[in-house]
């Protein structure tokens, strides 16, 4: 019996300009653009296998070996339906002789076989996804998870489309997932269209543009966070006046400033904007009614350490050499250049000796994309 299967991986990304707020909760359209760095595939990634078979009776999903419900009309169901629609539109509805764009040599055979199956989009799929990092580490897995899901279905369906097109679909699984379709430095452009067709990820620069960039992940706590991002950000949209100021007067300038800093490999400017945006994201969380607190005392102590490190560095005329950033939890991510990694690891271990969850993600990035 015919059986079709594909596997793809996608890495975690960590935002420098934060996404926080939706203007459309169903399509997942953000209130502001954001920009992130995609971490190394070897360290933090989701790997997803999708299989289509005419004998399958329904779509099914396993996360880390445990079967999960695919809720009708939910985010997972939407992503699967959108990928099936794309398969139909891009491959099955086209002329049978029309050549498909095949980017990699080794998938040529599979692709020819897949493109010759005119009914693949009508088969149900079984999907299994694994993370190579403990969920307990408190690192968001929805971004890498939905990006890997969409990438594996794109391979299964031999879709001749760009990562930006796939990001439109990953976005509907989890907003931040759209940025994990690319490696390196990635912007999620908020777009203006009500249908969301211009709310997608674009690569600002590949990893190879700035290979010395590293990320250090300090696992401060592996507790599950109190307020989920999805509900927290909508409370902020409904109640925070500071968020409106941020959307109109802060983020556009920061997107331009950090893109320029990345293009010119100006770490001092990159660090200044990254830390300012982390601070403002936590300020809008605090400005929410009732207030949301994501950082704890250890998070704040790490900020103080990096501020002091940068003060000394600037005094020496070296500019800022480290940038902290915090998402919807207490764990710190410190961006720095390779030459400073050892010194910063030693500093953090000296001041936080009891912390054994300090994880260095060497060799940052790795091109995600669709293989
Ligand atoms: C970010 N975060 O830009 C920001 C910074 C958390 C803080 O993206 O509702 O899990 O699934 O679209 O993508 C977390 O939001 O929320 C997030 P949904 P998501 O990385």
From TrEMBL:
Gene Ontology CC entries for this record: cytosol
Domain Mvd1 C-terminal: residue ranges: 215-371
Membrane-spanning ranges: none
A single MF term (Gene Ontology): ATP binding
Enzyme Commission code: 4.1.1.33
Family: Belongs to the diphosphomevalonate decarboxylase family.
Stated name of the protein: Diphosphomevalonate decarboxylase
């Amino acid at each position: 019996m015919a059986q079709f299967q594909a596997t793809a991986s996608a890495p975690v990304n960590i935002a420098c300009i934060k996404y926080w707020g939706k203007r459309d909760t169903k399509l997942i359209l953000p209130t502001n653009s954001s920009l992130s760095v995609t971490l190394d595939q070897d360290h933090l990634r989701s790997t997803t296998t999708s299989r289509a078979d005419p004998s399958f009776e329904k779509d099914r999903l396993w996360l880390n070996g445990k079967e999960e419900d695919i809720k009708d009309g939910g985010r997972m169901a939407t992503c699967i339906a959108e990928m099936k629609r794309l398969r139909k539109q891009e491959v099955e509805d086209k002329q049978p002789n029309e050549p498909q764009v095949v980017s990699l040599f080794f998938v040529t055979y599979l692709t020819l076989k897949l493109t010759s199956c005119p009914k693949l989009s009508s088969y149900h799929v079984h999907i299994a996804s694994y993370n190579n990092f403990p969920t307990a580490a408190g690192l968001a897995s929805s971004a890498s998870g939905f990006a890997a899901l969409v990438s594996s279905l794109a391979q299964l369906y031999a879709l001749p489309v760009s990562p930006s097109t796939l990001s439109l679909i990953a976005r509907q699984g989890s907003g931040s997932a759209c940025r994990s379709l690319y490696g390196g430095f990635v912007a999620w452009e908020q777009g203006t269209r009500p249908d969301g067709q211009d709310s997608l990820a674009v690569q600002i620069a590949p990893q190879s543009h700035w290979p010395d960039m590293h990320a250090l992940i300090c696992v401060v706590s592996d507790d599950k966070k109190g307020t989920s991002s999805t509900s927290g950000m909508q409370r902020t949209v409904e109640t925070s006046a500071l968020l409106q100021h941020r959307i109109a007067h802060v983020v556009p300038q920061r997107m331009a400033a950090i893109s320029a800093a990345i293009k010119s490999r100006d770490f001092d400017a990159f660090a200044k904007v990254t830390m300012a945006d982390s601070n403002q994201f936590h300020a809008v969380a605090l400005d929410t009614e009732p207030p949301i607190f994501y950082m704890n005392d250890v998070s704040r102590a790490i900020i103080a350490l990096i501020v002091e490190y940068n003060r000394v560095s600037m005094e020496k005329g070296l500019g800022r050499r480290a940038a902290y950033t915090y998402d919807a939890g207490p764990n710190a991510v410190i961006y720095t250049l390779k030459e400073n990694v050892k010194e910063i690891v030693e500093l953090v271990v000296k001041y936080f000796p009891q912390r054994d969850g300090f994880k260095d993600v060497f060799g940052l990035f790795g091109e995600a994309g669709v293989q």
